Amino acid sequence: MKLLDERICSLFKRHWRQTLTYWSVFFSFGLCIAFLGPTVLDLRCQTQSTLQQITWVFFSQQFFLLVGSSLGGLFKKTLQSSLSALFSCTLIISLVFAIIPLCNHVILLAVAMAIAGLAMGVIDTIANLQLVKLFQKDSALFLQALHFFIGLGALVSPLVAYPFLANDSCVLGANWTANSSSPSDLQHLRESLAGHGAAIRNISQYPLHTEGEVITRVSYAFWIMALINLPVPVAVLSLIYHERLLPCSSTGPRLLDRDSPSSTSPTGDSGQGHGSCCCNPAKLRDRPATFFLLHILGGAILFLTDGIIGSYAGFVYTYAVSPPLLMGHKNAGCLDSVFWASITVGRLAFIYLSYRFQAPRLLTFSLVGVILVQCLVLIFYTSCVFLFIGTCLLGLCISSVFPSVLAFTEDVLDYKGCATTVLVTSASTGEMILQLLVGSVIQSQGSYSFLVCCTIASCIGFCLFLLLLWVQHSHRNCSTDLSQNTDMKKKPQTGGS
């Protein structure tokens, strides 16, 4: 065990600069993904739009995050293109934070959030892919830490925003005293939108002004977040310089080529072994069916589990304030924070667990835990206390699924890099689509159906994971047989020479 400790520490010491840079990039991702919910009412005042109009900004961010995840694979061929994309995207996020206070129309705000979502999607794909390339069979440990920094950023962002949020109506009209909503109504609306704003809820009963004098201090929150995020692109630029990738530092060997044991393999800076397999139809023709099934099943699992995370974060408040729980708005508003905090703590704990246990075992524990927790929440659906306990346990169990599935799938596929783009895109798609589906079901069947949908999705996810294990076993056997046949063909040629 001590020898393994030294090996992991040695890997981190060798690549500490790259690792910390990718972790900081994911902190930027988390910072950007969590600020919109708490600030959306103040942004509504700033743009003087209706609640129905402003909630489409959520969709703009989520849709272009999906687009960015798909496009991120285009930058993976070389280290230079990957780091350049990360630098551009993290700088864009700081610029978006800075210009959001200047967006005085909802369309301008939606465009700004679309640009931010595009940058976030590219970051999501590239940072995961680069860590997988860098550490390969040891990537599970570092991927868990990478996704911990998303949670850390998602916790920091609302903490920065809350002191600057309006406690009363932030658009004062001529008859605001008669028609404006009370502070409790505003708090209820803010907590309703504090998830990912998955669906446009029936919120027209709350009279909020769109014309009048705008009074809001939320601009300061965005400028503070822009400053907090600014060191991230600086760190990426420093790494680019350190790797001798700037025009002014093009002489001399790149440090990644010199230090990395993987640089002699196709996973080095050239990245040709990664890019060619995914995009070259000629090479895909020789792949066995199990190769494609592994991508499909891994993507389907993350489609469901990330969809559960998005749906739970988006609708647990709606469920808590509805019958039969009828929880107070303030207490129900804590559920979303408890959920994200438990995900962050879970990812921190799984950093150590992924070092001690293999990814399949961790995934079995996590997915079974998710099913059991959701079944218990269904059984004790009238208990407010158990909803808090279940929310905490669900966050802990589901927190490690994405990095574990990514590490496991790439390991089975010998780190070709194709799986990362497919899995990240599938996760983003599930987070967007399942929220819309669950929101539609809630509108027609009631809030209790939200728990039923999440439980069904988790059961399907576990069944797909069992199928993934079987396909993985078949794929390894197929690869072994193929390598043996190749060796048999080479032996007569070697003997004749």
Task: Count the DSSP helices.
Answer: 22
Helix fraction by DSSP (H/I, runs of at least 4): over 70%
What is the percentage of strand-forming residues?
under 5%
Major β-sheet annotation: 2 strands, antiparallel
Strand order of the largest sheet: 1-2
**Principal-axes shape call:** globular
* DSSP, total strands: 2
Mean of residue pLDDT values = 81
Uncertain parts: 176-180, 197-205, 255-276
Briefly note the structural class of the backbone: mainly alpha
Rg is 24 Å
Helix/strand order: HHHHHHHHEHHEHHHHHHHHHHHH
End-to-end distance, in Å?
46 Å
Can you tell me about this structure?
- By secondary structure, this protein is mostly helical.
- It has helices at residues 2-14, 16-34, 36-47, 51-54, 56-71, 79-99, 106-135, 139-161, 176-179, 183-192, 218-229, 231-242, 255-259, 272-279, 281-284, 289-321, 329-356, 359-379, 384-398, 401-412, 418-445, 448-496, and strands spanning 171-172, 213-214.
- Mean pLDDT is 81; it is low at 176-180, 197-205 and 255-276.
